[in-house]
Each structure stands twice: as C-alpha cells, then as structure tokens.
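Field notebook, page 350. I keep forgetting to write these up properly, so this time I am using the form the group agreed on. The chain and the ligand, phosphoenolpyruvate, are recorded exactly as supplied. Prediction of the bound pose follows.
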Amino acid sequence: MIVVLRAGIPASEVERLREVLRGDGYECEFESVLQEQFLVCRSVSGAPPADAVSRLMASEWVTKVFAQETRYPRIGIERGGSRSRVAAGNLQFGRGEFGMIVGPCTVEDEPTLLEIARFAKTIGAGGLRGGAYKPTTSPYSFQGHGQAALKMLERAREETGLAIVTELIDVRLVEQAARAADVIQIGARSMQNFPLLREVGQAGKPVLLKRGMGCKIHEWLCAAEYIADAGNERIVLCERGIRSFDDATRACLDVSAIPAAQSLTHLPVIFDPSHASGNRNLVEALALAGTAAGADGVMIEVHPHPERAIKDGAQSVNFEQMSRIAQKIWAMRENGLVAEVGLEPTTPRV
Ligand code: PEP
Ligand code: MN
C-alpha cells in the first residue's frame, strides 16, 4: 500500500500515521520523491482491517491511498507526481531530457578511446561508453583490459567532461567501478544477479540496467526494484533486444517495451539498437524507431574503424554513420516528432 501525503506534512503527523498503520499490521517507510511524499507500506501480519484506508483518509494530510499491494513500491508509476530524471553531469535522462551515450564495445587503447570521446562531444552526446570488464559467452573471448581500461575512461572524462558509462560484472569490483564510472552499467546477462543488484544499489552512482535478453518487462522492473530497495533510485532502464525465433538479427529490439515500461515505472527508459541489431547497417533504423517511440535516451556502439574493432565491430557504426544518426535524433526531438506516451503517469496500476 502507498499513502500519498500532502506537501508540508508535519513530522508529528507522519509519526501518528505510522502508529495507525502499525496498529493495522503494516510496516512502513517514509519516502520523498521529487515534490511528493509517501508512506510505502507492507502488510506483515495477514489481511489488514477493512477500514484501514478510511482511517488514513480521515487525515487532512493524506491525499490518496493505493490500497492494494503494488508490484513496484519504489519504482512504480504510482510513486511519482511526474517522471523521474536521472542525471550524471551533462548526461540526463527523463522528464524531457534525452541522453545519448556512444562509444566502443570495449575500451581498446587510449588514443582510440580519446578519438571517440572527442567525436562524441561534437555530436551532442553526454556519455561515453566502453567496457573494461566484458561478460563473454565464451571463456576464451577477450574480456576487457580491466583496471587499465578504467583508467583510460577516467582520462577521457578529464579531457572531455563526458559522463563515463561502464559495465560492472563482479560484485567484488563495485568500489573500483564506482570510482571510474559516472553511470554503472549492469548488463543483460547480469540483470538477475540479485547480490550484484543489491551491491550496486549501495554504490552511490546512477545505474543503467539493461533488460535480460530472455526477461519479461515485469522481471526487468523487479530487478530495478532490487536496486531501489538497496537505496538507489537513480536507475535508467535500457531495452537492448530480446531473443526471438529469428536469427536474421542478433536480437529483436522490443520497441513496444519502451512505452510499456514507461507506463509502469517513473524511471527513464532508453534503448540500445547496437546489441539489438548486431548489424551496423540496421542501427540507424532502430535508433530512429526507438527515439520516435518516446525513449528517454539511446546507447550506440561507435568505432572509428569498425572493421578493426576488437569486439562487436559488425554492429559498431563509424563516425559518419553516427553523425547522421545523431543529427536525425536531435531533429526529431526538436521538432516534436516523438511519441509522448509515457511522459505523464498513466492510471495507477496497483
Ligand atoms: C554491452 O553493452 O557492452 C553489452 C555487453 O550489452 P548487453 O549486456 O546488452 O549484451
Ligand atoms: Mn558490445
């Protein structure tokens, strides 16, 4: 149950309401999101009394009560008076802001990374991506330059001011990643690594949570709820393509997941057309489709010489392709050619 409170509620009234709720078998926590204040309650002793809601509504400080247990008490759409914005420097997502993250699949060497970072600035991107630790299907594939790559990312940030987005795969490396990253990425393969989700929820940095390739939107949102429950609500969801029966593309970009997720959560939702398509010639089409669908941002793999990239060269666009994609995305946004579904909360689902 979520109890929505009027702004300016005195602390003594919050305490009184807590007591009322405790008496009715609820454990609750006081929460503030944007201008809104809430009591997020969980029933801990069987079915609560039928008149629990009317008792709460009797207070002039209570504006609304979502009586049933919500599936997403912290990240659910019911929580916000408006959508959340997540920011890391100039990289901003949500509530009208579109975040663009570009960069190589994996950090290769410092000159190449700096070349990409300088290019990223010229097209209006706010974030630089690059894997230091790569999750790989085969144990024999290149798995990243690790800490050396994190240092290169830090240098790219120093020079360009771009926000660094890099993946964390190992619960033992949280501190190291949190030092280098402005946004910590949790990859598709780790989306249901629950201890990792809890750790990253305590790392004090925004989290980019990719959707597992075989996961339902509900499972993805529950994964975000883990991070939020550990204390961090600065989460950006990223649709990156799901497994389908078709192997003409690497995965299948679930465009509908963008507005669908936005109708269920106040968190920003972005997408990744690179891993979805697996093919640089399809990236522009998918990038424009997701932007048109109302996404809060995009993440695209870029390399100055894709044919020489250590990883994911086939899906990495070159600078010329990326410039064109960025120009079109910014033009679509400036001209309002994007769906507004999800910009306002839909009817609360409880
Ligand atoms: C990545 O972004 O580098 C990556 C490995 O993506 P995903 O987790 O979506 O496969
Ligand atoms: Mn990749």
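OBSERVATIONS:
- The first helix runs from residue 11 to 23.
- Confidence is low (pLDDT under 50) at residues 343-350.
FOLLOW-UP: compare against the apo run.
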